Amino acid sequence: MYYITTYFFRKMDYMDIPVHERQYIRKLTYNKMNDTQKEMYVKSITDLLISFSALRVDTTRNKSKQKRVKDKIPRRRIKFTGMKYRYNHVFTDSDRVKLKDGDDDVIKVLVKEDKKWKHVAYVSTDDVEWLRSVEDFEHKPLEWINVDKTYAIYDIILLPSTCCSISNIRI
After folding, report:
1. Dist. CA 145–CA 78, nearest whole Å
2. Of 5, 26, 65, 89, which one's alpha carbon is 20 to 30 angstroms from that of 98?
């Protein structure tokens, strides 16, 4: 939070402006102004800082609370690959995604399209062994993180399967 100083304007050198306000005032511009312009400039910066400090307190509290809640949920990043061999699917944050244990050493990634689950990718081989060690991984919710041409990154939420399913959780 910023502490804004209120003062009667007097002929003021740039270095006389408090540091937390000075960072928003360009020295070169300030030094070229006459006294009246300097007074208006400093006053407007002070007013803006007061407005922004009120906004910043509210948004910071909300974001930090959301982040703390999100940090407490156990999760792990997993990577999906092979989309170019499976319909060239490009993942988005609105996709309904689930995992299905496949044959051999693969885990299939399914996306719901037109009321049917369509196989569009595979879980990366680096994540398959770990994922198979997770109890009931096929029913854990997934959260979209990032996408690239050759891979997509999701977080798997490691909550007990009795408290959530893919259909009733939205993070």
Report:
1. 10
2. 65
Q: Report d(CA 147, CA 109) in Å as an integer.
A: 14
pLDDT tens, residue by residue, 104-136: 788 999 999 888 999 999 999 888 988 888 888
The pLDDT of residue 112 is 92
**From the CB of residue 141, how many other CB atoms can be counted at a distance below 10 Å?**
23
Residue 33 token pair: 């102004």
- What size, in residues, is the chain? 171
Query: How much is the pTM?
Result: 0.53
The dihedrals phi and psi of 111, each to the nearest 5 degrees, come to -125, 135
Judge contact between 63 and 55, C-beta under 8 A: no
The residue with tokens 């893919």 is: 166
How far apart are the C-alpha atoms of 47 and 56, rounded to whole Å?
14
